[in-house]
Write a structure and sequence with these properties.
4-stranded mixed sheet, 367 residues, mainly beta
């Protein structure tokens, strides 16, 4: 049996020992010094001149005098003498003059840090937070309510702030920790709604332009699928549309449109681009689609204008050879030939093409 206890080194009492009260009283004195340890100071390298009974200090570096060689130890003034206690790893002590709590880490006294919820680097509720998900909550439901205790304004706003336009501030919905839907500012400052079948490939369903508030549907929408052609009463196409002007555009940037129309209106450079339909200055005709009214037409093909063969009766008005005489004839073997000699009341509209009355609008295609 040892003469002292293993941790606090308290003197023990032997069965045959005389004056057993001596080690017992010494053990009590040691316990009184170490239990609920609070020291007056930890910055003194030599003992104070007039210590009071029970005063305790942590000996500072460079110890001298009666404290020489005791750096880091707890010095207690007991029964008119200094008693030194070598700290063990994990001991804690309250430093009265600093109002701080320290612990012995095996080499030095170190501040005990209390992390408040206001400044915690990680915070987990019913789960463990990590360096990526610094705030983690595992719960069947989470409630955020307006402040009705202060009272507050009755409003509630959830703010997600990002560093710059190219970063992302969004809300992601997952299945088995794999993303399935996301909305927010994803890679720019427009509002995006996306979905994914596997957490790897994403399909953009909605984009709302931050400057105009206009919405477009990159993957198409009910009633307005990708590839839809509209006539727009403005000089520029609306959001989500391109001019139907035959331009060669990127197969990657406009992948949804390329999936729909392919190279039906031109293969572009044959590998990275494809052509839009060119509807500038054109009338649109429904594809025959097996009806037999306009047979032999390929979908999206262009067709020159023409007249159907017909015969007119010769009609002369006025005196032949006079300024008011008119003669017209169109028929087989004579292509679009009209002879009109008029200097008076007849006001015909003649030119280099055949057309009906019309209004020029901008042809646009949904992408």
């Amino acid at each position: 049996m040892s003469d002292t206890t293993p941790h606090l080194k308290l003197p023990t009492v032997w069965p045959s020992q005389a004056q057993k009260h001596v080690p017992v009283n010494e053990a009590f004195a040691h316990l009184d010094a170490l239990v609920q340890l609070s020291v007056i100071d930890r910055d003194l390298a030599s003992p104070p001149s007039s210590p009071a009974s029970g005063d305790r200090y942590i000996v500072a570096a460079g110890a001298s005098g009666l404290w020489s060689g005791r750096t880091g130890s707890v010095a207690a003034w007991i029964d008119g003498a200094w008693v030194f206690f070598v700290p063990q790893t994990g001991w804690t002590a309250w430093i009265a003059d600093e109002a701080v709590l320290v612990y012995w880490d095996g080499a030095a006294w170190t501040h005990v840090t209390f992390v408040s919820a206001a400044t915690a680097a990680l915070f987990g509720v019913n789960t463990t937070a990590d360096i990526v998900s610094r705030l983690s909550v595992k719960s069947d439901a989470v409630l955020f309510s307006h402040d009705d205790a202060t009272p507050g304004s009755g409003d509630l706003r959830l703010s997600l702030n990002k560093d710059g336009a190219a970063q992302t501030a969004s809300v992601v919905f997952q299945t088995g920790y794999s993303g399935r839907a996301e909305f927010g500012l994803a890679g720019d400052d427009d509002f995006h709604v996306k979905v994914s079948p596997d957490g790897e490939s994403w399909h953009e369903a909605l984009v709302i332009d931050r400057a105009s508030g206009r919405a477009r549907f990159p993957a198409g929408a009910d009633g307005l699928p990708v590839g839809t052609v509209i006539w727009h009463a403005a000089a520029s196409p609306p959001s989500g549309f391109l001019r139907a002007n035959g331009a060669a555009i990127s197969r990657t940037a406009y992948a949804n449109l390329f999936d729909v129309i392919g190279t039906g209106f031109g293969a572009g450079d044959g590998s990275t681009t494809f052509n839009l339909p060119d509807l500038r200055g054109e009338f649109v005709r429904g594809v025959d689609d097996g009806r037999g009214v306009d047979p032999g037409r390929a979908f999206g093909s262009w067709q020159q204008d023409q007249f159907q063969y017909h015969t007119h009766r010769t009609n002369i008005t006025g005196t032949p050879g006079s300024a008011t005489a008119q003669f017209s004839y169109v028929g087989p073997g004579i292509d679009d030939e009209t002879v009109v000699h008029s200097a008076g009341p007849v006001n015909g509209r003649f030119g280099g093409e055949t057309r009906g009355r019309n209004v020029a609008l901008l042809a646009c295609i949904k992408y």
